[in-house]
Specification:
With about 280 residues, the protein is mainly alpha-helical. It has helices spanning about 1-15, 30-50, 55-75, 80-105, 125-145, 150-175, 190-215, 225-250, 255-280, and strands at about 110, 180. The protein starts with a helix and ends with a helix.
Amino acid sequence: METWETARKSAAEADGTPPANAPRLAGAWPIAAGVAALVAMVAAQIATGLRPQDLRLTTAVVVLLAVSALAFAAAAHTPRRAAGAFAAAVAAGYAAEWIGTRTGLPFGDYRYTDALWPRPGGVPLIVALAWGGMGLAAHAVARRMAPRGRLTPILAGALALTAWDLFLDPQMLRLGLWVWAEPGPYHGVPLTNFAGWLLVSVLVMVLVDRVAGRAAANRPVSGAQAAGTTGLVALYTVMAMMETVGFAVVFRPPDPFVAAAGGLAMGAFALLAWRRAWRR
């Protein structure tokens, strides 16, 4: 019995999964770090509403988003799996943006201005970090909605991530961070952009699911794992709420249409994720 138990623990460690009775490294400290980064992100978003032209605050929001998502994901999965999933999402987002600025595919013909730095390869680093941070959050929302599925979480997560762009693109255009060659019907954003976002978001969800989601779905969920997933869902929800309030009453001029479109889209996914949690 002792030999079998030792072998089981060794196999689990080799797979990156800590034994069920071992103290999890991805326990209290990642949750605390995720909450702290989330609170700081909200403070930075409030400051951004008061000083919209200070791009340092915009950068701070994205960095804190990424830190919070990575910390919560470390608790939901393991630190190693979380880091791998985050890196995969960042790489996929960066590659899509790098290709997009050179070919117009898959988003449409656009270019970044000189406002955001650093820009390795012409793509602002915070843009790639945003793909990683919200990619993890959207994946958690989808996995909370459909914890055992395969295709459903991928599609739901991709739609949840694309819903965020209903806020993101109009806001970044306001700040002059990128420019479309031919402005489109959604407050200057062409519809091809959302089709491209959905396509890239599917890729991001597939990568995150392979690195973290599917393995997590096959393991018993501990308190730390459940708290980490809840933290990611909360991060997605807070982003939806802050963006809605920003476009509705804070930004000048306010934009009730974007507030309603983005708020309803992101809010629907957040509500479905919380509903699933409340029914447990």
